[in-house]
Structure formats: C-alpha cells, structure tokens
Design goal:
The protein is mainly α. It is 66% helix and 0% strand. It has one helix and no strands. The radius of gyration is 27 Å and the shape is rod-shaped.
C-alpha cells in the first residue's frame, strides 16, 4: 500500500497564536483569581456592615 505523501506548509511549525490548552489554563487561572477577589470583597462588605451595626448601637 502506498500512502499519500504528507504535505507540510512552510512555517506551519512556527504558527503564531495560543493552543487550546494554553487558553484553558489561562482561563482557569483567571477564574480562580476572580473567585478569590470576589470572595474577599464580599467578606469586606459583610465586615463593614457588621461594624456599622455595632457602632450604631454605641
């Protein structure tokens, strides 16, 4: 059996852009950073609200 020759485009090995794996990893890291930021901001808001209620009683 003869196989058809594989045609390689010039510069195909040096294609620009990101692979799908790189994009998925970057989005995963970004989502973790955003999750930590949102959690921190919610905690800060809850603490501020609790402190406001305490200082109003005093």
């Amino acid at each position: 059996m003869n196989r058809a020759p594989v045609v390689v485009r010039p510069g195909a090995a040096h294609s620009s852009g990101f692979s799908l794996v790189e994009v998925v990893v970057a989005l995963s890291i970004l989502s973790l950073v955003l999750l930590a930021t949102i959690t921190g901001l919610r905690t800060l808001a809850n603490t501020q609200g609790a402190l406001d209620r305490i200082t109003e009683r005093v």
